[in-house]
Amino acid sequence: MPAHARASDSTETLVNLNARVPKQLWRRVRLQCLREERLLRNFITEALREYLRQRTGRRA
Questions:
Q1: What's the pTM value of the predicted model, to 2 decimals?
Q2: Closest residue by Cα to residue 19 from 54, 49, 60, 48
Q3: Is 31 strand, coil or helix?
């Protein structure tokens, strides 16, 4: 199953996230989501999971 499909198929409870990010970064993320035909929610969820995996892996 592709990584971008996992977050949308999840039965996890969702919460709202509000963050201020640089305008150029926001534009790049939006364009990437359009190119990959994926939801922004899924993109952010996977990015956060990957970040935490990498951080945990360094400590182990």
A1: 0.71
A2: 48
A3: helix
State which amino acid sits at residue 26. W
Compute the chain's Rg from CA coordinates.
Answer: 13
The two three-digit tokens of residue 34, written as one number: 């359009």
- What's the token pair of residue 57? 């892996």
Give the tokens for residue 30.
Answer: 């939006």
Residue spans of the domains in the chain: they are 3-59
pLDDT digits (tens, 9 = 90+) for 10-54: 689 999 999 999 999 999 999 999 999 999 999 999 999 999 999
Question: Which amino acid makes up residue 1?
Answer: M
Question: Which residue pairs from 46-49 have beta carbons closer than 8 angstroms and sit at least 24 positions apart in sequence?
Answer: 46/3, 46/4, 46/6, 46/7
